[in-house]
Amino acid sequence: MIRSPAWALLAAPALVAAAPANQDLALVQKHLRSIQTMTGAFTQTDRNGKVLTGTLTLKQPGKIRFQYQKGVPILIVGDGKALTFIDYSVKQVQRWPIGSTPLGVLLNPDRDIGSIAHVVDSGDPRIVSIDATDPKHPEYGRINLVFTRDATAPAGLRMEGWVALDSQSNRTTIRLSNLRFNAPVDDGMFRWNDPRPKSPKG
To answer: Which segment of the chain is annotated as a signal peptide (predicted)?
Structure first.
């Protein structure tokens, strides 16, 4: 089980009574369905402790962009169908169907998460934490999403970030900040330049 990371805990006194697990799961589903777009900053930590920062842009259904800090020649883009990893330093491109990645839970708001997710007790009633993995496809990896209760955010939850484990058990932690919801986002944000050399025409 992926435990809720310590960064999700808040300093304010606990004043909120814990909700039943099924109620919190339904609240997470409502939150995901309430988000048409989301933008903000992210901090990424990999299993080796390497930290990168950047900006996140999300548009439902299925579109996401991780734009890394200046000097990092990496881009991750979801275009609604596939999640693409582009490394411009070596001109390499890798693509996976979005549904076969841990981020599929986040990027398919119409999916009923009740069959693949369960609430994890964080020990803090202000925190809602869920683990999600497809029991029929464990090779897709798993994700632990962490939220704080916030009446000003969609469905009363604010996403703090997630911990993802891919099929090779590579662990990636994403922390979010400065989130904005449901502002217009152009689809052009989810296009990318292919760095691979073009084949010569015969």
So the answer is: 1-18
